[in-house]
Amino acid sequence: MSNRLDALVQAVIQGRHRDAVAHAESLLSAGTDLYSIVEHGLSPALKALDVKCTSDEFNLLEIMLAGRAMMEVMDKVVAKHLDNDRPLIQKGTIILGTIKGDIHELGKHVVRIILSCAGYKVIDLGKDVEPVRFVEAAAEAKADYIFISGLISVIVPHVREVKADLKQRNLTIPVVAGGAALQQMTAEDLYVDYVARDAFDGLHYVQRMR
């Protein structure tokens, strides 16, 4: 089984999504449960990509292709057979969206992939999302975190509204902000709990908070 898991890890890291799905299906057919495929196949690949992100080897296209391979395995193998297998342990629920005034989604998609593959349930609200919608969705889902994405500076006032709205409703849900424009500011400036430098930094934050 170890060789097959290693093959899955390498296929994901290299962004070979069809091979990754084939390896995962082969493991499943051989009796490997979904938990092992995620914990010993996808998780090591995620850690390897994390290392690349913190080194000179960082390549956005490479991360995107690997992320696609991970999601293909999650969607076509894990989700497909989840009802018939040992349930996966979810580490928490995260509300994610690009805030009002911004329609960029590429970075948000990367965040969704990484958080999902790390074991978090991610509710993606999409783009141009009203600040109050983040709060409503978090309350409805009893979410553990709110992640706000944004690439342009004009959205900053809207970002600040989220925490204020949470406070008015007596909700204490941590708010994480990220994206090109928001990375240049402090958590105090944005009235959030944390400003993530990149997708993995956001993941590390929620892992530290557990």
UniProtKB/TrEMBL annotation:
Signal peptide: none annotated. GO terms for cellular component: cytosol. Keywords: Cobalt, Metal-binding. GO terms for biological process: homocysteine metabolic process; tetrahydrofolate metabolic process. Coiled coil: none annotated. InterPro entries: Cbl-bd_cap (IPR003759), Cobalamin-bd (IPR006158), Cobalamin-bd_sf (IPR036724), Met_Synthase/Corrinoid (IPR050554), Meth_synthase_dom (IPR036594). Residues 91-210 form the B12-binding domain. The keyword Signal does not apply. It comes from the Bacteria. GO terms for molecular function: cobalamin binding; metal ion binding; methionine synthase activity. PANTHER family: METHIONINE SYNTHASE. This is Putative cobalamin binding protein. It comes from Desulfosporosinus meridiei (strain ATCC BAA-275 / DSM 13257 / KCTC 12902 / NCIMB 13706 / S10).
